[in-house]
Specification:
By secondary structure, the chain is α/β, with parallel strands linked by helices. It has helices at residues 9-21, 40-49, 65-73, 87-94, 99-112, 131-141, 167-186, and strands spanning 26-29, 53-58, 78-82, 116-123, 146-150. Helix 1 (9-21) runs parallel beside helix 2, helix 3 (65-73) packs across helix 5 (99-112) and helix 6 runs parallel beside helix 7 (167-186). The radius of gyration is 17 Å and the shape is globular.
């Protein structure tokens, strides 16, 4: 059930209709965690029925084989699974032991259902040195896309300003991403 801070299912459908009428082609369901909404399947199906390409940003932990198959059937074409680094760092960030393994399992479930998968990482002082680990995971799992984000200082993110990379760390992180991308491309 919607709180006063989120759209009801009917309000969500009306917004999706407006987005489709405006000529947009993609509808990104993100959050928080979109799979926490009990009506998310209905909203994804509605977006697809309006000619939008529905995609997700998710922590991956709730993507079961059954759920992945159900979403693939209504046209979910892509899910970006968030990873905060290697296993230990990810679980520490999420505050939940086992969340890394569940995210990888969810990613595999989506892939098995025919949904394209990418990895998402918000880079900060505590995890930027693990960008290489994320590339290793991508190669091992056959994932061909990653999105690396910087911290955004809004909402709960405003408390994280001290976690952001300084200029030298940012340059090193970008260099690492470029070097690993080039190496993988060359191979």
């Amino acid at each position: 059930e919607a709180t006063d801070k989120e759209l009801s299912c009917e309000e969500g459908k009306k917004m999706i209709d407006e987005i489709a009428r405006a000529g947009f082609k993609v509808m990104i369901f993100s959050g928080g965690e979109p799979l926490m909404r009990p009506d998310i399947y209905e909203l994804v199906a509605h977006a697809a029925s309006r000619g939008l390409r529905p995609v997700f940003g998710s922590n991956g932990t709730l993507i079961t084989p059954e759920l992945a198959a159900r979403f693939a059937d209504v046209g979910l074409s892509y899910v970006g699974v968030s990873l905060d680094g290697a296993r230990e760092t990810h679980d520490e960030f999420r505050g939940l032991p086992g969340s890394f393994d569940r995210a990888i399992e969810g990613m595999r479930n989506a892939k098995a259902a025919g949904i394209k998968v990418g990895l998402r990482m918000t880079v900060n002082k505590r995890n930027w040195r693990e960008i290489g680990d994320v590339f290793d995971i991508m190669e091992a799992e056959g994932v061909k896309r990653a999105c690396f984000y910087h911290l955004v200082y809004t909402g709960r993110g405003s408390a994280l300003m001290d976690e952001d990379l300084d200029h030298a760390e940012t340059r090193a992180a970008v260099r690492l991403i470029m070097d690993r991308t080039r190496d993988w491309f060359d191979r």
